Amino acid sequence: MKDTYRHQGKRQQLVKTVKKKGIADEKVLAAIGKIPRHLFMDSSFEDHAYQDKAFPIAADQTISQPYTVAFQTELLEVKKGDKVLEIGTGSGYQTAVLCELGAKVYSIERQRELYKKTKSFLSKIGYRPKYLSFGDGYKGLPDYAPFDKIIVTAGAPEVPKDLLGQLKVGGRMVIPVGTDVQTMNLFIRKSPKEFDKKEFGAFRFVPLLEDKN
Ligand code: SAH
């Protein structure tokens, strides 16, 4: 598991690309510049790791496009010490970005194979999320709620009510909503009963799936 000068050089190019596409948050850019994305992917895709593209990982899933990861993270406005819930651990790349920003990360993955693989991989490369859970993200993590921030990294046909309910007042949730194409939604909880909603551009995610049981 090497991170060579060549990898580092390509990574700085990726940071420039993402910046050009409109990402301005320096902390987010620094995280992209630091995390060895090639290690989160199958070695057969290693040569492409620093292209601004999504790639296949295990269990028919994908590692999100770096621009998308940066866009969602920027909208989330993560502060050091924030308690953040992520739905869709996948490769763990987004988890690592949140850890770099100093968040206490709780993440849920419904594919057992990915859950296991990513759990051991993240600890191997030194990332320590607070809690990785195997289960259905639609339900969130009621035992650990409320959260300052919630990020959903799979396309949700509709907004899961349980997740909105696990957001602190003042908290933010970023979620791509739609079936074939998704619109990025930002929810800000104004009071126990009131949410502000803003919509951003179109993205393509793998689907947020209902529990197998
Ligand atoms: N954050 C990941 C993106 C992975 S793609 C990364 O940076 O690599 C989305 C992930 O969401 C997939 O791993 C998929 O298995 C997972 N997923 C889909 N539906 C889910 C659900 N209901 N609960 C938890 N995870 C889910």
- Average pLDDT across residues? 96
Give start-end ranges of low-pLDDT stretches: none
Quickly give the CATH architecture: 3-Layer(aba) Sandwich
How many whole angstroms does the radius of gyration measure?
Answer: 16 Å
Helix percentage range: 25-40%
For the biggest sheet, the summary is: 7 strands, mixed
Strand order of the largest sheet: 5-4-3-6-7-8-9
The H-and-E topology, N to C, reads as HHEEHEHEHEEHEEE
Reading off the top of the CATH hierarchy, the class is best stated as: Alpha Beta
Number of beta-strand segments: 9
Let me know the CATH homologous superfamily.
Vaccinia Virus protein VP39
- In total, how many domains does the architecture comprise? 1
The count of helical stretches stands at: 6
Name every ligand kind in the structure. S-adenosyl-L-homocysteine
Outline? globular
Give the helix/strand class.
Answer: alpha/beta
- CATH topology grouping: Rossmann fold
N→C terminal distance: 37 Å
- Beta strand %: 15-25%
Write up what this structure looks like.
It is a single chain. The protein is α/β, with parallel strands linked by helices. It has a single domain (54-203), classed as 3-Layer(aba) Sandwich (Rossmann fold), CATH 3.40.50. Helix content is 29%, strand content 25%. The strands form two sheets. It has a seven-stranded mixed β-sheet with strand order 5-4-3-6-7-8-9. Strands 1-2 form a two-stranded antiparallel sheet. It starts with a helix and ends in a 10-residue tail after the last strand. The mean pLDDT is 96. The structure holds S-adenosyl-L-homocysteine (SAH). The site of S-adenosyl-L-homocysteine (SAH) has 23 residues, from strand 2, helix 4 and strand 4.
